Amino acid sequence: MNTNEILEYTAAAKAADLLDTARRIAPTLAARVESEERNRQLSQETIHTLRTAGLYRMFVPRSLGGLETDPLTAARAVEEIARYNPAAAWSIMVTSTSAWWTSRLNDEGIEELYGDDADTFTAGTFHPPMLATPVDGGFLINGRSPLTSNVREAKWICVAAIVMENGKPKQVDGIPQVIGVCMKASECSVEDTWYSIGMKATDSNDTIANNVFVPHHRAFPLDPAREHNSHCSGPLYRFPAILAGPGCFIVPVAIALAANATEELLAIIDSKTPLGSMSTIKHRGTVQRKWGMAEARLRSARAYLHHTITDAWDKTKRGITLSAGERATMQLAVAHVNQTCFQAVDLVYSAAGSTAVYTRSKISRYFLDAQVVRQHGFANESRYETGAQPTFGLPPDLPVVVF
């Protein structure tokens, strides 16, 4: 074997080990779902299981003890965990996406976050941005950011912030300057606002910062062009942002919910007899058709996502610069997979009839979780427009598409 073949073989072996680990631990996570939903956050047992399995270090650089996992393996691992515990999979999204963005820190910054513990939990949220007032040595951060998932578990919280100058947003080329900042979670406060219809155990509450000091080394420009620190020079940190976050970690949860829903419908077709019928729903054409449509949507969505990730990863590894139009098609994939998976769950919900309206129904839980996931700002229905805009000669309305 030459050096490249050895590296590819080693990477494949590590990916297989990670997927085997995900499959092994996933069933143990299912038993905690109901209690975690009642508590609206993951249990320490689940956090410990994911941490010791290495699933929180997938996007942490190898030089700091991370795995620097390839994107397709990450997406497959998240889907596997989400089949049993969607909120647990969501927590992997939270800390992995944050790890990817913090690769933009300088050496001192990323070493402070992960140098002593590659499993450190970093939470993050980008909208709305907080305010960053320059002071000696760094910035004072003020503001409120909702939807900070797993915020009580986090050691660090990363947010976007508008740099202020004389009480107004600082302008760079006529545009407000926006940076990313990493705050110590212990210096922020949390307001308990997460009372949701689904994904209840994600602890996605509001983070509040009141004059929280962030030194320069824990701040980074939110700009597509950047220099790599010495730990994050690998292709993973050049991978398109819309796939590195939503593609690898958000929409695999949607895929898992759709897979669970179609499987659960099969589990009830022999036992459910609808009103006015002498036979079970197994023999009803409308149920057969809806299951078939749902299954086809699920399979096509998974294939579309995996193809998009694989193609982008291959180009990234070969050093090919992706155009704005190519990146926009990746946004289309993310939005379409998410919305298509919701459609699959909705078809199953409809086919199951009154069985699905009870909270005891698994289909009801999948439906409500899917309702929440479909609304995510990076993958909701409006992102079809975002994906189309560069082809129409317009700038995308979601700046992260060009990162």
Describe the model.
The protein is an alpha+beta fold. It folds into three domains: 3-104, Butyryl-Coa Dehydrogenase, subunit A, domain 1 (Orthogonal Bundle); 121-221, Butyryl-CoA Dehydrogenase, subunit A, domain 2 (Beta Barrel); 239-402, Butyryl-CoA Dehydrogenase, subunit A, domain 3. It is built from eleven helices and ten strands. It has helices at residues 3-30, 33-39, 44-52, 71-82, 86-101, 107-114, 241-268, 285-317, 324-351, 362-373, 383-388, and strands at 122-135, 138-148, 156-165, 168-169, 171-172, 175-176, 178-184, 189-191, 205-215, 219-221. The strands form two sheets. Strands 1, 2, 3, 4, 7, 8, 9 and 10 form an eight-stranded mixed sheet that branches. A two-stranded antiparallel ribbon has the order 5-6.
Residue share in helix: 40-55%
Distance between the termini: 35 Å
Oligomer: single chain
What summary fits the major beta sheet?
A: 8 strands, mixed
Structural class: alpha+beta
How many distinct beta strands? 10
Poorly predicted ranges (pLDDT <50, ≥5 residues)?
A: 3-7
CATH topology of the largest domain: Butyryl-CoA Dehydrogenase, subunit A, domain 3
Strand content: 15-25%
Radius of gyration: 22 Å
How many structural domains are formed by the residues?
A: 3
Helices and strands, in order, run as HHHHHHEEEEEEEEEEHHHHH
